[in-house]
Every structure is written in structure tokens, then in C-alpha cells.
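hiii so my PI (J.) wants the whole complex modelled not just the main chain, which honestly fair. so below is everything: three entries, each one labled with what it is. i double checked the lines twice but i was tired so who knows lol
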Amino acid sequence: MDVFLQQLINGLVLGGIYALIAVGYTMVYGIIQLINFAHGEVFMLGAYFAFTLVAFFHLPFWVAVPISMLLCAGFGLLMDFVAYRPIRNAPRLSALITAIGVSIALQNIARIIWGAKPQPFPEETLPSFLQQVNPLEEPNIYFSFLGINFTEVAIKFPGNVSLAYLDLSIILLAVILMVGLNRIVSLTKIGKAMRACAQNRTASNLMGIKTNQVIAITFAIGSALGAIAGVMVGVREYIEPTMGYYKGVAAFAAAVLGGIGNITGAMVGGLLMGIAEVFGAGYIDPIIEFIATNVGLGEYYEAGTISNSYGSGYRVAISYIVMIIVILIRPTGLFGKSTGHRA
Amino acid sequence: MRNWLIGLLLVPFVFVLSCDSGNQVRVAVAGPFTGNAAAFGEMIKRGAELKAKEINEAGGIKEINENGEIRARQLTLVFGDDVGTEKEAKAVATRFATDRRILAVVGHFNSSCSLAGKSIYKENGIVELSPGSTNVDVCQGSDWTFRNLYRDDFQGAFIARYIKNILTEYKTVSVLFDNDDYGRGLKDAFTAEARRIELEVVSEKAYDRDTTDYTAQLTSINADNPDIIFVSGLYGQAALIVKQARNLGITAQFFGADGIDSPEFLKNAGAAANGTLLTTPFTFGAGGEEAAKVAEAFEAEYGVPPDTWAALTYDAMGMIAEAIEKTYNSKATLAENRKAIRDHLAGLDTPEEGYTGITGLTYFDTNGDTVNKPAYVKIVKDGNYTTAEKQMLDIASQN
Amino acid sequence: MSKNIIPNSIFEYYKSKSSFILNQLTLTRFILFLIILFLPTILFSLDAIIKFFSDRNIYIDLPSGDYILYICVQVCVYILLAIGLNIVCGFTGLLDLGYVAFYLVGGYTAGLLMTNHGFNYFLVLPLAILNGGLWGLIRGAPTLRLTGDYFAIVTFGFAELLFRAVKNEIWLIQDINGFVKDIPSVNIPYTKIVLYQNWHHYYHILILIGIVIFITYRLKNSRVGRAWIAIREDEQAAACMGINVSRYKSLAFAISAAIGGLGGAFLAPFWGIISAKAFEFWESILILCMVILGGKGSIRGAIIGAVFLGSLSEILREILLRVPQFSSARILIFGVILVLLMRFRPDGLIYKKSV
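here's the output for the full assembly
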């Protein structure tokens, strides 16, 4: 049970990251039906921008993160302006190929600027609750509540289940930003314009909505959210030029699962993808072992003829499988409404 | 338009022409200078460059002709980037093997690249001396492939025995391995030996380099409550693993192999790296005076301390240079010179004949594998590698 | 443009029959044809000249003929793949982001059968082609009704799944990480001829390319090709005209995949070793880049795209090694090419609109 809870927490944290990235995909797709392959790279750039600001310009973390978000938002605008706007009326495949090209180009520009090696986020610049204290020493407990200990770096639940503040902040950020974004889209004027553009771009143009502007704002918002996800991942893991690729694909799968174009869908899809991945890595192998030993194939399992690493080996593939199945069976995803102009 | 296009197609075939009087001896260095293993490639490049520089400053490679005159030649390095993939490794190998001046190749780093290049080097008769490939098959079936470090099976078995014999307070082990040739090969060797010497392996879990979140595997490993977690993988992912494990409150001892022997591991793992044990073909701490001098020169040159791969490449380059100096004959053809280098290396088959470099004594068995190069154990203390207190250098207990 | 070297009057008859070869024969092409045919001879005589000098201690830093030949064979493999991908991408107008999957299927079919079961290459070749085609159908069947982005995503996911499978299905591959080592060279049955040198491979793949080009040309100009292009231009209109869309699409998937399988089958004995790493997503993009550079739907375009990008990649290795911090620019350039092409010449560099 402890293990299950811990895995659930792990899944939620990963899911929170996916959700933050998935929003960028889903918003852009909702409005111009473009799979912005380069969004994963924006996520990576967000992490690198914050890293550079902190490590080379010695800005405090809390200043660097908003600046990095702004920079990424600007970068999203630039990307839209330079690469996507000129081909907005070209066939959709041209846009997709452009997106792939932008993605490859950005990844390698980052490699040239910051090098191929992974970079850790400089720990001493982080706010204290995100830092790592020497893990082998017993951490100070600030206060306890119902058996839950709040220590320097993590919340310890009874039964050795722990949730680092960093991880907690990822989940909270995802939820708060998602609720806020939903509010913006459903209540404000620009949100209304976005929804109008998503329904019919020509008609909204005729109604006096500056569609190009609305699209640009969409890119900016998506990129800013990607940037904050990038910073969190950079702090939690490390920063490297390829970090956007796999997480981008998984987040895209999450967006497809939730119903592409739907922000709540991206949130839920992201969390589900995270949990699915973690549970896949944690539970597939024991299940296979259980089945193998019970149908009399235990010796093959022992000998390694039946692999004991399917869970982690195919973990990466879970997002592909989800993506394919959703597209083939229910292209509108969990929350999407049939919009009539599906692919 | 059409002519313009044809012209464009021809551009690629224009190469740099240069003529010189042949006052150079050329040796190629192949490694992953870009791509995922670029951090290793960088160290390989620096190790080779440092050795070449030292040789050239000492007057280059000398040849005494029949009249007793000494003619010194500069050692020139040619680098080839194999990106760590077979396709590129094949191209690089063909490039070097069919070159008219390259006498020997130091490389490749990745086992898959060494394997891909093996047949080409064999066919064209040129020595391939790898300072980094540990896969069991690398030297099999070719007289022209050598390596100056141990194989995966030796290292895996060594770690199992070290845990059993030296770290007696630890009883149970979990393995977390990279789902790739290096990680898996090492893990297989480890578990096979563990089974033989009855060291209890409570669980095995794989991870993939593409994902950077390993909390799922770590949580299920922790459920088995092992005393030691053996991470069979490379430095980048290993750093994340120890970091994430400490965040999850896992207090088990970590053990790694030579793949995590890189300053990058310390940089990425931060405080979490402390206490990690790892094996390495060589430590500068145990390497003696000569090694310390080289480490100093290296740091002065590049601003970072050398790692194992730099040291191994340094020695590999030294072996090749020695072989060239002893056998080179400017009257002979290229093929004869290459063959002489191979024969010289193959002749280093007993401890007496072996080459003594900064990583210790190197000599080859009939396959071209290095025999009995000791494995050292290092520990991370306060963010630095130091030689662990207890070593297991006794060859008898290693075999 | 250079003139026909053969007087028009004599061959008027053949031309009126639109004989494919003669109709297209110009001086440039004739010379190009000769160069391609005698490339190994040219390179080896160049080698001999350089050797003459280097024996006299005058060194010319040109790469050896064998190396250039190796690069040519590698480029030829890409030509084959680009032609195959062109069928789905160019003729039926669907974006295939996972073409490398069939390359993988062919490679492993040939590699495993030849290494572990001792099959002869010439027996394996049709099997690999069939297996590739079969996987093309397997992927094609559920995706028939998909178009545009959704099709692209499914193909992408499918290729990545196969990539994971060869990495993890150790019982099938019998080695880790999708390694198939020591794949024997091609030997021609009933003779003692073994094809192991680069110039053997060169003529070997030239023959394969010749056959594939012939078949695709005939297909393109046949009823099937017209149907494909009709589907590309407007699927619904094509269906209304009585074209069985699913049948022709399936056919395109199968043939395209079969050519991918052929490429893989050639690759296995050519490299002698294959591993999962050779079939990453990046390879799909590279092949796609070639098709798009030359112009979707044009066979000649696919060939020129493959030759250009294949050799460019090799040249950049030589050049960029001298500027180490820019070594990643090699891949960067491919991204930039894609973006610029889509912006300025979405139909490729040398595309002539035929329909």
C-alpha cells in the first residue's frame, strides 16, 4: 500500500509536468490545427534561459523564472512570426514539416550554445525548500500533523511515503495555472476571441477579431507555461538539449488523450499519462512474473528468456500506445467535442 | 538552373588538398565527439592530444636508419567523429582504414562502434586499440583489435565479489540497469557471478535513457529494502538516480561502475553523490608519481582534472607511439608498417613484455583483451572522487 | 541544355512510342550514366595515381577511393529509401513520419535469418520484402481512414514502438539492444563469389535501385499511379470517380514498405552488424528531408535529394571537425533546410508540376 501511494505520488508529479507542457500543444492545435512539434524545444529553452540567468547573470531564482517565462513567450511569438505565419494558408502538412524543422533546428542551436552535456541547475541559487540537504542525515522536522511530518525538504507521510516540496510545487503549479487558464479562456475577452478563432478563423476575422494577434497570444501563453515546466524539470532533473523531445511526445500524447484543443482535457490527460507511465514501470514486471510463475513458465523467467524489464523497457512506449489507440478509436479524446473539422 | 544544381552536387567532392614532405606520422583517434556520449569523447580527445603533445615536445617519433642517422617525425593526430552510432562508425573506420598515411587507430569508445568498425579494420589490416569498449565481443575474431581495459564480464564479476568479500556488512543487492548494451552486459555479468558466490540479488529493474524520471523504478526497488543498489549505467542517468533516490528518502548504499566515473556525475548529482562507491580501471590516487604528473599537466592544459578515459587514451596513445617508434621503417610500405605495429602489440603478451603506463601494466591475451588489469574502487567524498580505503587488488581473489 | 547526342530523325519512331530511356537521353545524362557505371574504376585509378605520388613522399590529402565508395553505397541506400517513402509521401500525399520502421523490419528479417538460421541472402531478400510489405499492411489497415496530422502521428508512434520492441524482445533478437552481430556477407549460390568489398556492394545496390526505379516509374505512369495521385489531390472526388480508395492506399503502403524492407535487407549484410540505434526517429526525418528537398512525388527529386543530403552530411563531418563547437550544426542544417523549403519552395527544389 505504501508503495502504491508512493507510486501514485510519483505519477502525479510526472503528470503535472506533462500537463504543463500539454497545454501548449493543445492550445495551439485548438486554434490553428498545427501540431507544434517545436513546443518541446520551447520547454527546453525555458529551462536553459532560467539556468543562464541564474548561473551567468546571478539573478535570484524568483526573478529568473518570470524573466525566463517572458523570454519564452517572446520566443513563441517569434517562432509564430518567422516560421508559421508565412505558411498559415499553405497545406497543413507544410506546417507540420516546418514544425519538425524548427524543432530540429532549436535543439541543435541549444546544443551549440550550451553544449551537449547535461547541466544541473545550480543548487545554491535555489530557494531553500527546493534545495537538497544531505539526504543521509535525518532531516529536521518543522512540525507534525496527524502523523505527517513536515521536514526541511519533504513531507513524510506515515509508512515511508515522501513528497518533496519541489514535487508538491509542480503539482500545485499545474493545478493553479490550469484553473487560471481555464478562467482566462472562458471569461475574458481574449479568451472569447480564442474560442472564436478555434471555431472558425475566417468568420472571426470577418467579425473584426485580429486573428493573427490572437494566435500570437496563444503561442505566447503556451510557451510561457512550457517555460515554467522546463524550469521545474531542470531543477528536479537536469537540463540538456534533448530534454524536450521525449517529454514533448509524452505531453502530446497526453493532449491527445484529453481531447486535443481542450485545456481541462490536457490537465487530466497529463496526470493520467504520468500515472500510467509510472504504474507501467512499477507494476508490469511483477504482473508478468506472477503470470509466468503461475502458468509454469517460471524457469524461462528466471533464465531471462522472458524479459524482466518489460515495464521499464516499454515505459517510453506507453505514450505512443496511448496516442495510437486514442487516435484510432476516439480521435476526440476524453473531453474533446467533435468539431467537424477533424484532421 | 539545372547546371547550377549539378554544380552544387559537385561541391561536396572538393576536398582540401595539401602537400608535405612526409615528415609526419599519423595516428587516428575515433570517438563520439558529438552526440549523447560527447562528454566521454571530449576526454578521449584531450587525453590523446596531451600525449601527442608530450611526444612531439620530446622530439617526436625517432627512426634510426641503416646509416645510423636519426630522423625524428612529428606525431599528427587525425580525429574522426563516430557520434556513437554504427553508421557513422563504419564511415569513420573506412576513412581511416583506407587512408594512405594513418598507421593505427585509437578508438572507438562505444562498444557498438568498435564492433561495427572491427571487420573493416581487420580487412584493411590496421590496428584498432580501444580505450573504452568493454563489451565482451569486441576483440573476438579479429587479430587487429585490442583494448587496454577490462571487459564487462570481468568488471561485473569484480563488483559482485567486492560486495561479497569486502563490504560484508551489506547482504542484499538490487540492480538498476541501463536498458542498453553497456548497462545490460554489465548487469548480466554481475548477476551471474552473484548467483555463483551466493550474493543475494533481490530485484533487477531496467531504465531507459530517454526518460529522466526514475522514481517509479526506485520506489519498487525500495520496497525490497536492499542494502546496496548497483547502478549499471552511465554518469548522466546515474546522477539523476542517486538524486531522485535521496529525494524519495532511500538510504541504501549506491554502487556504480566505470560508466559513472566522470566529473559530470559529481556535478549533476551534487550532494547526493556523496558515499557512492564505483569501480574504475584506474584511479589517479593509486596510480603513483607518473600519474600525478600527468594529472597536473592535464589540469594545467584544460582546466579540468582528467578522468579514467583520458588516462586510458593517454596510455593507448603511448602504446601506439612506442610501437611505431620501435617498428617504423620509412622504406617499407604502409601495409608493412601497419603489420609491424600489430605484431609489436600482439607481442606484448606477458607481464615482462607489457607496456607500463600511468594506468599500470598492460599486456594482451591472444584475443587482444587486456589481462588482469586491476579494478580499483573509488568513493565519492565531499563532492570528489577518492580512492576507497579497501581495495581488492589481489589478482587471485579477482579470478 | 545540351542537345540529344542521337539524331532525332532516326529515333523518331521510338520516341513516338515514348520509349522511356531513349526519350530522356541527353549528353549530360549519358556522361552521368557513364560516371555512375564506372565510378569504382574511376576512383581506383585516382587511388593509383595518388599512391604513385605518396610512394615518392608527396602526399595528397584526398580521402581514399574505398571511403568515397562506401559513402556512395550509403547514399544509394538512402536513394532506395527515399524512392520508397516517396510513394506514400509524394504519390498519395500522406505524411509518413515512421518510414524507418520498414527499414528496421527488413534489416532484422535479413539479419536474423542470415545469422541465426543460416539462410542465403537471395532467399532472404524476397522474404524481407514480403515481411516489409506485410508490416506496411498491418500499419496501413487501421489508418486507412486517417489523413493529415493524425496519420503522421500514428506512423511516428508505430515506428517508435517497433524501435522499442527490437530493444526489448531479447528472446527474438537473441542479444541485447537489438544487436545482430557478425551477419555474413552475401554469397552467390553455386559459385564461390562473396560480395564483401565496397565496389561489390556498389554494383549490388545499383542493380536494386535500377529495379526499384523501373517499377516505380511504371507504377507512377500506370492506372495505379494515376489513382494514387487522384487520391492525393482529392480523396473524396477520387472515390466518386470510382477509385477504390482503401485498396489503392493499401497498395501504396505495401509497396512503399516493401521497398523499405528491401533497403533493410541490403543493409544487414552490408554493415555486418545492426542494432536498434540505427533505426531511430532521426533516420525517418532524414529520409523525409530528402524526399521533400527533391520534391514530393518526383522520383528524380527523391534521388537528387538523397544524393545531396547524404553527401552533405559526410562533408560536414570533415569540415565541422575542424570547428568542434559547431559540430552539432550538421543536424541543425537539416532543420533549417526543412523550414526554408516549406517557406519558399514547398514543392521541392526541382519539382515540375506534372498533373
